[in-house]
Queue: 2 jobs
Job 1
Amino acid sequence: MTRDEISALLPFLANGTLEGDEKAQVEAALAEDTVLRDELRALRAIRATMQDEAEFTPGEMGLARLMRGVEAETAVAAAPRRTWIWQAAAAVLLAVAVGQAALTWRAPAPGGYELAGAGEAALSVAVAPGVSEEAFRALLLDAGVAIVGGPSALGLYDLAPSEGTDLAAARAALEASPLIDSVQSPED
Amino acid sequence: MDPHSDLIPRIAGGDKQALAALYRALERPVFRFIRSRLNDPFESADILHDVFIEVWRSAGRFEGRSKVQTWIMGIAYRKVIDAHRKRGRVDVTDDIPDMADDTDTEACIAASEEAVQVRQCLETLKPDHRSAISLAFYDDMTYGEIAEVTGVPEGTVKTRVFHAKKLLMRCLEGFGLRAKGVAT
């Protein structure tokens, strides 16, 4: 090993990572060369200062920012799955509505009785981004409405009031909810 | 044994707590390395964020052929290079001026006790030299690990470290001699 090669390895002796034959050769050269020993002393002093250097780091604020970034990534990745869940939920509800219609056709109510507004869209709503199916379902139950159509290509759901539900009150409950972006009725 | 290797499969599986644990363990050395290359704490914080987002995205592709810290430092290194490119800074050569091999070691050691002077001298180094000596002294990496991080042969790492330490010592010697009142 040349003297320059020995000198090139001194920083790795200073940081304690040099091993085996290379370490032995460097230490042998050091034993005979005061200039190299002085250089090693200087390198150790520089390393010690660098290691001790106090440095501001982003710390917990940086971690909070990272977690927000990861949440955003997760939300984007999950978006197609949520769409699938909504579509499945809408398909099930549609099937129930079709089944109900079939039953109604086979056994018409005596005297022409029918549910007020059943099967007819009285309201159309747009759900806020990121709302879970569970939260949306709870809101619909609270407001006393059911999905009778949708989602449309624009993501709109058609709703009809359940029996005994006051449409104006249901609309007010939906408009007041942060889960809903917009509420419209055919008359609007 | 790599102390962080068990976190990577968990991160790949979407475990945010594992990512937080890895961040807490490696944030300081990764940030310090980025900061040593950019001299801008705010831009460095942005790149640190980008590094760990990439860890989150690509943990499933980590093959375990290097230590986790080495892998992450490699991500940081590439992002720093990108940042330099965006700034229009180009670093293509390892050439350094010839220097006499007669450094005043005592002056250098005296100056090296001042962190500000060490930082100032580090900032005079070219980016590749600064990376090499930073990874060696801040992060105690082997030259093999530095070669993995920076994507160059081990011989190139040794050359860069050799030049970096010479320039660093010469710079610190200047501080030391000026403190002693000796003209440089």
Job 2
Amino acid sequence: MPHSSLLAKAARPMYWLMLTAAVWILLRGHNEPGGGFIGGLLAVAASSMLAIIVGVRTARRYQPLPPMSLATAGVGLALLSGIVGMATGHPYLSPMWGPIGLSTVLIFDLGVFCTVWGTLSGYIYALLGDEEANS
Amino acid sequence: MSHTGPVPSNDGSPSYLWLTILPLTLFVLLLWGFSQYPLPWSFELGWVDSLGVSLAFRVDGLAAQMLVLIIGIGTLVFVYADGYLAHEPGKGWLFAVLLSFMLAMIGAVTADNLILLFMFWELTSLTSFLLVGFKHQDLHARAAARQALLVTMGGGLALLGGMLLLGQMAGTWSVTAIIAAVPTLIPDPRLPYALMLVLIGAFTKSAQFPFHFWLPNAMSAPTPVSAYLHSATMVKLGIYLLARLDAGFNHVVIWEAALIGIGTLTALWAAILTLRERDLKRILAYSTVAALGTLTLLIGLPSPRAGLAVAAFLFAHALYKAPLFMVAGNIDHATGTRSIDHLMGLRRSMPWTAAAAVLASLSMAGLPLSFGFVAKGAISAAKAEAELLAAVSYTTVLVNAVAVAVAGVAAIRVFWGPPETPRGRVHEVPWRMLLPPLLIVLLGIEFEFLPNFADPLLFQAARAISPGLGAVELGNFFDFSPVVSLTAITATIGLLVFLSWDRLHRMLHSWHWLDRFGPAVLYERLLHGLPRLAAWQTQGLQHGRLGGYLRLILAALLLMEGWIWWHSGASPVLDWRWPPHAWAWVIACLLMGAGAVAAIFLRQRLAVLMASGLVGYGSAVLFLFAGAPDLAFTQFVVETVLVVVAASVLPLYLHDAVVSVKPRVTDIGLAVAAGVGTFLLLSHLNTLPADTTLSDWFLRHSLPEAHGRNVVNVIIVDFRSLDTLGEIAVLAFSLLAALPLLAGLKRRTTP
């Protein structure tokens, strides 16, 4: 597919910009519109842009983990965040709050973010014809 | 009597004889327990307290008797199996499943909690499936295993329903408490349904008519399995449950009638079918079905002495049928056939097997000097006490006569007479296959002569079944003279049946209608009808045409809307008020309308995609001004990613860029009707009062309890985080499932 060189040059900075926005949306989600789900979707938008313009291989390299592993890690994070409360005698998934607004809720939301990002980018890479879709 | 460690036999498959130490230890412990602690023993451990389900176990007389059979015969079956399967590579697997089966049986007969009992009950069905299908390379073995599983598990489902009903009516899951509470349950209108369901469960397990057909087919299992599961233990589990509940329901009319009626029918039907068989193992299987029918009938008898008859016959049957199966296995092992047409005069080459066969057959025929004789006596005493229909009495005489004839076939016909033309040299089987049947039959004889050991066990069991039974002794429990004359009558008829076996067989075999009708044929029809039904409904509903799906969904929507209007009798109300930011709503609606209309008329695929994207953006604008910024945000991102990705992906899979489908008038009509219907319904719903309890609660508690002003996100990650956890897990799993499919799609479109 022919692309303009301007777009190809701008793709990587744009990716980081969008990813920053995604993380910001994730973090502010507790009080303003946002959260892990929307943030994850925005990250998917960033990854799919990179995959379409530069290539699936690059988009994959710019993710912290391969898609399936990212999704699994997300579910794992969410699962683990619930155990913290149990250690202090609360029921599973009870929210625990630490200093400067850090909380198990945030870890849970990060899990949602990673699951959405990993799963949907995995779908998109597979549709775009990724050779190593199963890794 | 055991080695310590796998000893390789001549062809390298290891011996598992050492495994016998497990059931043997259990058996010794059990006997020691009997001598030290009086029954009943009970033991309870909490499990799911909130549901009233606990690990409650109770061993009373009936359970103790079953335990003796399960563990005692199990020990010997282990020895036998090691000899029988000496050259079988998959022996370890068989032993593993046999052991699991034994544990499941022990659990089932000792569980004092309905749910626990059901769990073990299903485990026995499952392990039975694995054991029947042991020779899984064989098509018939697979079919038989599937049949056993479907019939017993289907019955298990009914049993679960019945148990749940019983538990709800009695307000407890404890079996003991439910039996004690029976008088209060009698007036409950749900009781007949509960009893019917429980009966279906027990009847499938114990192979009662019309579910009997799985048992003879299960004979494709290896002989140790047939001897253990399908004669001595598992099929008795249904009998056990009936006997257990009979202590409470003995005087409920439908319970009694069902037990006596079905029991008699099963016994008669199986006795007739026995005569149609030539395969020794299948003959024994049908006579087992007949014995199970007799047991069901005996449980149904209202007299207190019936308990003793059940206990005695249960014991006697296990003690003669398991050895007879082992004898059939030995013959098969030595000669390579089980057809009684080819077996004669084996006495000389297999003297020990012949001895076991004769002793077991004595008991089966109920002749004096055997434990079967004692059981016969108990049975006729129970029958004399109860007033029975003449038809039932005649039937039992006939069934007993056939049992005598089967005993004759197994002991005399096969072993006596001139030896058959030599088909290779027939050798006696190794000791591991001789000791178990001989030991079991000798125990049976021993019980007859030394009643001190067996009697206490039998009486405890009998009292658990019939609490009304007084203190009696087995020896002087009945008057000998009628029993002796009755035995003489059955033996004479049995002898006649035995002598005319071949003639009867030819006659019954020519009754071809027996092959065309009956429950077994119905089962086959159902089994073959199921894939056809599935194929038919798949073609109708899962045809893979997107337009068809949409039509179906819209038509169903329209039907439901019509039904609501018709059912509620309300007339459409239009309550029109302009919302705040009405101008934005109008713009949003214009966007969506324009997108939809464009999507109908545009022909280029990419253009249609863009037009549908416009509908999505329009709805995002609508959400933005309707107080759902989160939703609007999500919608914008989803729509963007979808359109961009679809635009990049579509050309890879579809090679023509133009949509070829023309809109049809009927489709347009359906779409418009569904749209208008939904609009009217929603506008009507808007005029109804809404329940805002939940949303108010979330709004009030979001900030003080979860420290978040964004209520939507607080609900997602805090209040309902378990739901979210489930959702993201499903999301991740969907990728796992989709990746191979997508890879396949890619291969198909790019040659």
